[in-house]
Amino acid sequence: IAPTAELQALDAAHHMHPFTANAALGAKGARIITRASGVRLTDSDGAELIDGMAGLWCVNIGYGREELAEAAARQMRELPYYNTFFQTSHVPALTLAARLAELAPGDLNHVFFAGSGSEANDTNIRMVRQYWALKGQPERRTIIARRNGYHGSTMGGGSLGGMAAMHAQGGLPIPGIVHIDQPYWWGEGGDMTPEAFGLARARQLEEKILELGVENVAAFIAEPVQGAGGVIIPPDSYWPEIQRIVDKYGILLIADEVITGFGRLGHWFGSQSYDIRPHIMTIAKGLSSGYQPIGGSIVCDEVAHTIAQDEFNHGYTYSGHPVAAAVALENLRIMEEEGIVARVQSETAPYLAKAWASLADHPLVGEAVSRGMMASLALTPDKASRARFASDPGTVGFVAREYSFGNNLVMRHVGDRLIIAPPLVITPDDIDALISRARKTLDQTHDHLRR
Ligand code: PLP
User: Fold this and answer.
1) Long-range Cβ pairs for the range 396-403 (8 Å, 24+)
2) Which residues pair with 298 in a beta bridge?
3) What gap in Å lies between CA 185 and CA 197, rounded to an integer?
4) Vertex 341 angle, CA 184 and 43, to 5°
5) Does the keyword Hydrolase apply (predicted)?
6) How far is it, in rounded angstroms, from Cα 88 to Cα 31?
7) What is the model's pTM?
């Protein structure tokens, strides 16, 4: 490959990075990743990094699995593309749909494929509205979502998401989507106990339904654990209360499992970890461990059977793409054969939880929490009062992330939170290495702030 500086110059001149101030990045130069194996990335200078984020929360089985490359090549030779519109289907898409119906809980037996999580959430918006229209209640159109939730970057996905920085640009949200507060106890819970706060935040759903009129509400969407919002783990009281409210008012529940699906919380789906019963689950990322772009909606009998009564005028060229579907099937086969989900629950997540919690003694750390293979730290100037960094909430996290990168550890920051979500196959030794780099990062950030 060309020298790093040459690659960086080309990148800066022509490549627009998502979620990035490209002018600032261009001046500094992107880190160019060239290869990866297991949980480790290699850059164009030959440095090796621990990928604490599994790419973007997606490389669940780790990098470099030859079987997935073989599955892709085999499928490309046999049938590289065909569509699933109208009256045609093909073996990879139908086999994957059947396999997902087997894995998904309850009567989530039907799959509408998309190319990504954002596209799948756009599908969900249209599907729940069409469902109520076919039920003779077309005025039930409003979807309730949460502030600081993340559901993608399309007009629909970005609108369901409650990211203020996204809503500030490009005309989001689209009409018919409203937001309630997130169950973020450490940051917003004040003097309440986590349990009381979880209940209060869940009851905002009921208040919002009553304010809008239940006859106008189509669905509630949420991530079992908010990922991009900063790995916000809800108090235990939150989800049972949400389920009670959804049941009481008969609105549809959409669990966005794009991150929490496929083992991240120690079950195949996060909904199982929290014992919730969604009507639709959004999936992507870990479905193929990120080896191919694929997403979708897993839909319950009632919604799918209703939608089936009329033509659903919606779909993507790459819905059920055969190569992506073949790779996803092979990914799921490996995950099952190697018992990866069960191992997360019995070994890897407990090990990570203990190691991660050890960071709580650091003077900068307000809380160090994890659920399954998602973990986060709150950075604080004062632990006792759960104080937030005042000026620009992004600053301290940004500094920490830069040190982390310098320490060859990929962590992400969201405002004043540092987060990880490593490949599910990470070993105890690699978790130890990750923790020691994270601690060094915290020490450097602490020194930096005192300068
Ligand atoms: N939903 C959640 C919960 C996500 O975390 C993401 C991506 O991070 C998406 C949806 C959007 O998925 P994609 O980036 O594949 O469009």
Assistant:
1) 396/445, 396/449, 399/445, 399/448, 399/449, 400/441, 400/442, 400/445, 403/440, 403/441, 403/444, 403/445, 403/448
2) 111, 281
3) 7
4) 80
5) no
6) 43
7) 0.98
pLDDT at residue 392 in the model: 67
Domain ranges across the chain: 31-61+339-450, 67-337
Would you say 100 and 111 are in contact if contact means Cβ atoms under 8 Å apart?
A: yes
Give 202 Cα–ligand 1 centroid separation in angstroms.
Answer: 23
Region of residue 64 (phi > 0: left; psi between -120 and 50: alpha; otherwise: beta): left
**Of the residues 123, 226, 271, 285, which should be mutated to test ligand 1's pocket, given the most ligand atoms within 8 Å of the CB?**
285
- Amino acid (1-letter code) at residue 408: N
Question: Dihedral sign, CA of 431, 433, 438, 439?
Answer: positive
Token digits of residue 442: 């915290």
Q: List, for the chain, all residue ranges whose pLDDT scores fall below the cut of 70.
A: 391-394
**pLDDT value of position 394:** 60
Ligand 1 atom, smallest distance to 295 CA: 15
ipTM of the complex: 0.99
Contact 159, 174 (CB under 8 A): yes
Which pLDDT belongs to residue 408? 98
For residue 56, give the ligand 1 atom closest to its CA.
Answer: 8
Listing from the earlier edge strand, what are the strands of the sheet with 295-300?
A: 108-114, 295-300, 280-283, 252-256, 217-222, 142-146, 177-180
Size (the chain), residues = 451
The rounded distance, in Å, linking the Cα atoms of 352 and 40 is: 17
Scanning the structure block, which residue is given the tokens 């018919």?
A: 176
**Residue 380, exposed/middle/buried by CB under 10 A (0-12, 13-18, 19+)?**
buried
The confidence score (pLDDT) of residue 333 equals 98
State the closest ligand 1 atom to the C-alpha of 223, by its place in the atom list counted from 1: 3
Which fold would CATH assign to domain 31-61+339-450?
A: Aspartate Aminotransferase, domain 1 (3.90.1150)
Strand pairing partners for 319?
A: none
Query: What 3-state class would DSSP assign to 426?
Result: coil
